[in-house]
Amino acid sequence: MNKNKWLVPVLCIGIVLCMAVTIWALFFRDGGKPISPDYPPQGTEANQKPLEGDESEKMESPQGGGSINVTYNVNATVDLSEGTVSLLYANPQASNQDVAILIMIDDLVVAKSDLISPGNGVDTLTLDEYAKDKLSVGGYDAELVIRAYDPVSGEKAMVDTKGQLSLTVVE
């Protein structure tokens, strides 16, 4: 009988603790940094520049499809003091899709662009503030993620194109 007297208060305390944790998890816990959206960026990339001497013909693609010509340098440099990423990415005139690029190390987005139109390229992107705090001087194996978008409807292609980058971080 003595053992049963303590059972009810212990269960009540347990229930109150469970409710407190639930309320904290729903209302007070920091959700962390949001992930990158799959929907198209809202604007065109401010740093894009026309490609000199690019007179390539548009590639053929089936109705409702698209094609991109991927041209990039496998080496990129992050300058922590300037907050920039130097790279070479071109979306030649042969492409019939707008593209947006992301530079990633595992799940960390280092930099991302807005839409790059066919016939244009970028050589500088802004370093993501969150990544600036996480990166140290040295070399990293990174990934270039290329997302294609229909230039008329803005619809994102079902498949992303990926390539490997050697990313050097300097102070």
The low-confidence parts are: none
Strands, total number: 9
Largest sheet properties: 9 strands, mixed
End-to-end separation in angstroms reads: 71 Å
Number of alpha- plus pi-helical segments: 2
Structural classification: alpha+beta
Helix fraction by DSSP (H/I, runs of at least 4): 10-25%
Outline type: elongated
**Fraction of residues in β-strands:** 25-35%
SSE string, helix = H, strand = E?
HEEEEEEEHEE
Query: Averaging pLDDT over every residue, what do you get?
Result: 87
Compute the CA-based radius of gyration: 24 Å
Draw up the topology in text:
Blueprint: H1 2-27, E1 49-50, E2 71-72, E3 75-79, E4 84-91, E5 98-105, E6 108-112, E7 120-126, H2 129-134, E8 138-149, E9 161-170
Parallel strand pairs: 3-9
Antiparallel strand pairs: 1-7, 2-4, 3-4, 4-7, 5-6, 5-8, 8-9
Please give a structural write-up.
It is a single chain. With about 170 residues, the chain is α+β, with helices and mostly antiparallel strands. About 20% of the residues lie in helices and about 35% in strands. It contains two helices and nine strands, in the order H-E-E-E-E-E-E-E-H-E-E. It has helices spanning about 1-25, 130-135; strands spanning about 50, 70, 75-80, 85-90, 100-105, 110, 120-125, 140-150, 160-170. Strands 1, 2, 3, 4, 5, 6, 7, 8 and 9 form a nine-stranded mixed sheet that branches. The longest helix is centred in the first third of the chain and has 26 residues, at about 1-25.
